[in-house]
Amino acid sequence: MDAIRRADAFAIANGVDGWTLMQAAGQAVAQSIAQRWSKRPVRVLCGPGNNGGDGFVAAAALREKGWPVRVFLLGDAAKLTGDAARAYAHWGDPAEPLENARPDEAGLVIDALFGAGLARPLEGQAAELCTATNSARAVCVAVDVPSGLDGDRAQADGAVFRADLTVTFHRPKPAHLLEPGRGQCGEIVCVDIGIPDGWRAEIEPVGDYNTPDLWPDLPTRPDRQTHKHGRGRLAVLSGGPSATGAARLAAQAGLRAGSGLVTVLSPKNALLVNAQSLSEVMVRGFDGVEGFLAGLDGLRATAAVLGPGAGVGEGTRELVIAALSRSPALVLDADALTSFEGETDHLFSHLRPGDVLTPHAGEFARLFPDLAEAPINKIEAARTAAERAGCVVVFKGPDTVIAAPDGRVRVNTHATPALATAGTGDVLAGITGAFLAQGTDAFDAASAAVWLHGDAGLRAGEGLIAGDVIAALPNSFAALRRRRRTDAARSALK
Ligand SMILES: NC(=O)C1=CN([C@@H]2O[C@H](COP(=O)(O)OP(=O)(O)OC[C@H]3O[C@@H](n4cnc5c(N)ncnc54)[C@H](O)[C@@H]3O)[C@@H](O)[C@H]2O)[C@@H](O)CC1
Ligand SMILES: Nc1ncnc2c1ncn2[C@@H]1O[C@H](COP(=O)(O)OP(=O)(O)O)[C@@H](O)[C@H]1O
Ligand SMILES: [K+]
């Protein structure tokens, strides 16, 4: 939580004091609650630090709004210090002992036990109360982070509150971005409590939520004069005769995502299998590395996807290294990643900042075994991986992290577990390839691809198979355009 502490220090150095921040934080918690739920008996569980301080402020603010509120304190009120002590005085009444809290009798529980300062797993009374709150019917609202959750690692080593709403401040922390922490947070509200402008320039942020306003020019809108060659030429490498489906999924996704021409480069022995199953996507046969390069050159490809169904081993390694000697930007997925297990230096020395790697957790561990083992979170792992590989890394999963080699990170939460089905990764590789083929910056291309892939998954819904994600893409594009038009109209009215 270092960045948050430094943000705090920055605010204080710029004339905003801690008490002002705490008041804003507590008020925001009360307001978020009042906006969502009708008046009901509230029990506020306050810890010994500033998280508890926020709790006292929230309690006083709800009381002010006419809510019935009782406050329970972990530890001794006489030991409270600083802003937390001031907040306790502001609440004014004596706090009741924590063991009397009885969440089963509450309508709403505010968890203000621990936030950024959690130093060890919950124990004793705090752990018991956590279990009792989780099994009670009361709504649970967490201040900053559900107590028990390590904000930096996004993990709990013991009991953890399961919140319906988490109100946090300034910027999302790893616990709000990454699983499994995010799953404990319920709805997440991030409130600006008055850290002055400019702190972000001084303090490296943890990472951004991947939202469409970060890549406003994507997907590229074809101009009126365009023709198919003007919209990017994408090549997709196919595997052998019994492993062609993955490449076709990637190719079809690339076409849907707006690449004007998509060609499957197929080993000659798989040419017929591919040709029989493709209509809009073209197919071209090759033999050996030289043949593959001739194919890439002949197509004048502007991007290529290598890996889905390609097979693991020397053959794939040679094709990847050969492709890296040519100009098309590459998306390396699946077997193109696994083939370099134990030989990553060779790969990394050839990669360029405009290339994209799209590993799932298993592939990530093969390429970056030390990072997968290290006690760091997924954001730090992906950021270090991108720096090391020298290109964009898309570390997939329920919390896909997109990292650029210059240290920027975006986390995508716009997705659905329905995407956990065979072939959806191939689809993502194809969409990414299409955006790269159109000349888009690799970090934005990957970010937009991941978001649209998640959006299409959400639209296709439960029961989806990979092909449905491809079919849903036009609806995702249309909805994104509508949303942008509405946003533009709203801001014009302001
Ligand atoms: N930095 C900011 O921007 C702001 C932070 N605020 C609040 O301040 C919080 C951080 O406050 P603190 O740094 O005081 O930390 P906490 O309030 O999270 O807890 C720190 C205290 O709990 C003890 N502790 C830690 N783990 C424990 C465990 N498992 N069992 C028993 N005791 C344990 C510590 O020794 C310390 O006394 C944030 O989460 C947020 O709620 C707000 O007041 C507003 C501004
Ligand atoms: N639980 C989940 N929630 C959201 N998205 C998921 C989840 N599980 C997988 N995905 C997404 O589905 C895709 C799966 O890719 P991958 O594992 O490479 O599958 P395949 O190799 O079968 O195509 C990735 O984009 C990943 O982020
Ligand atoms: K908390």
From TrEMBL:
Q: Tell whether Lyase is among the UniProt keywords.
A: yes
Q: Which InterPro entries match?
A: CARKD (IPR000631), Nnr (IPR030677), Ribokinase-like (IPR029056), YjeF_N_dom (IPR004443), YjeF_N_dom_sf (IPR036652)
Q: Enumerate the cofactors the protein uses.
A: K(+); Mg(2+)
Q: Which family does it belong to?
A: In the N-terminal section; belongs to the NnrE/AIBP family. In the C-terminal section; belongs to the NnrD/CARKD family.
Record Pfam families: Carb_kinase (PF01256), YjeF_N (PF03853)
- What CDD domains has UniProt attached to this entry? YXKO-related
Identify the domain of life: Bacteria
* UniProt keyword Transmembrane helix present: no
Please give the Gene3D superfamilies that the UniProt record associates with this protein: 3.40.1190.20, YjeF N-terminal domain (3.40.50.10260)
Query: What is the name of the gene encoding this protein?
Result: nnrE
What is annotated about its quaternary structure and interactions? Homotetramer.
Residues bound to K(+):
N51, D111, S147
Q: What does this protein do?
A: Catalyzes the epimerization of the S- and R-forms of NAD(P)HX, a damaged form of NAD(P)H that is a result of enzymatic or heat-dependent hydration. This is a prerequisite for the S-specific NAD(P)H-hydrate dehydratase to allow the repair of both epimers of NAD(P)HX. Bifunctional enzyme that catalyzes the epimerization of the S- and R-forms of NAD(P)HX and the dehydration of the S-form of NAD(P)HX at the expense of ADP, which is converted to AMP. This allows the repair of both epimers of NAD(P)HX, a damaged form of NAD(P)H that is a result of enzymatic or heat-dependent hydration.
Cofactor annotation remark: Binds 1 potassium ion per subunit.
Q: Quote the EC number.
A: 4.2.1.136, 5.1.99.6
- Give the source species: Hyphobacterium marinum
Domain YjeF C-terminal: start-end pairs: 211-480
Protein name per UniProt:
Bifunctional NAD(P)H-hydrate repair enzyme
